[in-house]
Amino acid sequence: LQIFEPSSFLPIRIRGRASQKSWSLLVNNLAKCHGRTFVQQSLIRIREKFMSKIARNFLLSSIVAIAPVGVMAADSSDPIVIPIHNWSSQIVMSNVVGQMFEEMGNNVEYITTDSQAVYESVRLGDVALELEVWEGAFGASFRTALEKGGLHDVGDHDAVTREDWWYPMWTKDSCPGLPSWEALNDCAALFATPETGSKGRYLDGPVDWLKHGQERVAALGMNFQVVNAGSAAALWAEIGAAEADRKPVVVFNWTPNFAEAVWPGEFVEFPEWVDGCDTDPSVGPNPDALFDCGNPAKGYLKKAAWDGMKDKWPNAYCALGKISFTNPQIAEMAKLVDTDELEPEEAAVEWLAANRSTVDPVINACKH
Ligand code: TMO
Question: Which of 181, 193, 179, 272 lies closest to 222 in space, CA to CA?
Answer without folding.
Answer: 181
